[in-house]
Protein: LuxR family transcriptional regulator
Amino acid sequence: MASAPLIDSHCHLNYEGLVERQQDVLANARAAGVTGFLNISTREREWRDIVGLAEQESDVWATVGIHPHEADKHADLGRQVLRDATDNPRVIGIGESGLDYYYDKSDRQVQRDLFRMHIGVARETGLPIVIHTRDAEEDTVAILREEMEEGAFPALIHCFTASAAFGRAVLDLGLTISLSGIVTFKNARELQEFAKEVPGDRLLVETDSPFLAPVPHRGKTCEPAFVRNTLEFVADLRGETSEDLAAGTSRNFFNLFTKAKAPA
Structure:
């Protein structure tokens, strides 16, 4: 019997540490049973290469968007520029976008304005927005609530590390939550407890590679192949089999990212 599909719902295949050996990285992951990759953009100059890889590899998809760290450099990015970049059929999501008040690499108001612009394009196109949030729970929830009142849009919180209260608030708004290798860390007890709460139809897994390698790979450059370690850890936490969780998270991915095509 074939193994259930397993999707790495957030990776940066064009980042240093992976891009130099991109084909080997993909081969390693496929050998580990990974059947799909969502390659995430963080700045406009990446879009061509990220979309280009998705055009070359049938199991790789792309997003277009601006990370909050890059907001100041893209303060004048026109809404239509982002909208036009979504027209490629290999682009299945917007982002990553959001708010990061931990590093404060960009002006907070610029971050908020750009986040709202991304949400508007997500609403207009129907493509999910992939949200980064760190030390910005209050503003993130406030913006999401306000924008949902203007019209619903699909969205997920990637690499969830926030409080359980924040998690429950975004689940109430209809968002999906994605867990990274951080959930496997010994000091992630609160996150591990919350992972048990997430409804099965709102859960994804990811690597955020080349960052955040899960146990037992901590200290190494993270690769999409390692998503299996995160999946197995979360399955054990939730009292599920890895096969069932892989099937469920894969199904959730294709339900959310409706432009992607599930493997036959």
The CA atoms of residues 160 and 217 lie 19 Å apart.
